[in-house]
Structures are given as structure tokens and as C-alpha cells.
Amino acid sequence: MTLKLLGISGALRMASTNTQLVHAAAKSFGPCDFTLADLNVPLYDGDVESDSGMPPSVMTLAEQIRDADAVIIATPEYNKMISGVLKNALDWVSRTGMSPWAHKPVAIMSAAAGRAGGERAQYSLRWAMTPFNAQLLQAPEVLIANSGKAFDADGALIDARSQASLDTLMAALRAVVDKRT
How many CA atoms lie within 13 Å of 49's alpha carbon, on the beta-carbon side? Predict the structure, then answer.
């Protein structure tokens, strides 16, 4: 059976280092059916939900989370928090009634311009994920500092220590999934 891995980047920019980090993580995870989620969903609005129901893009995201064997999330750090894009997507998915995160193995990581590598964003993401009862891996923390210089032209991590941490985290995620299947 081919494992389904969903990658979520908390940034919409095409050249985002968090998107590069998600791709590097998927490669490190090993053989799988990898999908990169699209967080380009409308801003949450209870009136839209009441009047029109769930937007199709939100339902697609919720179904991708539900159907994945594991999820990796890379979050940028915007003003010491996760991005509004990521928080908005989490809020929308919480309204679907599907509970797709429940007991889902999830590895989080971050790439940020600052020297802490998004440590505060990871903390806020862990807090934001609490109501969903996901199975968050706690270690190792993958914090890519000075992320604009952390990847080569092919999207590979340049720093061997960062790659080693990523490899350890992805091996731990695969081990959790293997125990479940």
C-alpha cells in the first residue's frame, strides 16, 4: 500500500521557503503519494457559511486531510505567529463537521528569515492545533533560520544539520504511520 502524505505550506508565495521545506520533507519521508494542499481559500465568514455552505476549496482541503495517512505542515513566522493564511484554513476546516485532524499523525516545521527559524510560529501552531486532537510529533524541532539562504537552486536544504533533523522527523512520522497501517 502506498502511503498518502499531505503537505501544507502556510505561505501562498510560489517561491516560499516553507513550500520548499514541505517538498524537502516529502522527499525525506520516502516513497509515498504526495499532495501539496492549496490554502487559497476564502476568508472565513460565517455569513458565507450560512448562505452558501462550505466553499468547495475548503471541502477539498478537509477531504485531503481526512484521506491522508500523515500530514506535514511548514509554517512561516509572521509577526511572531503563524500566517493568517494557515489560521484561516484551520478555522474553515474546523467548520466542516468532518473532524479530519482527529488522531492524524502530523509533523510541523518552519522556515523563517529570523535567527530562531520560526520557533514562535511553531509554538502558536501547536496551540492552534490543540482543539483538533491531532497526533503532533514533538521532536525533533525543525527550525530553518535565515531561510532565504537555506535551500539550493533545486530546493534541497544546504545545511547538513538541518537536513539531518528533517530526516529524523520524517523517519519518526513514517514510523508512526507504519504502526497504524
Answer: 14
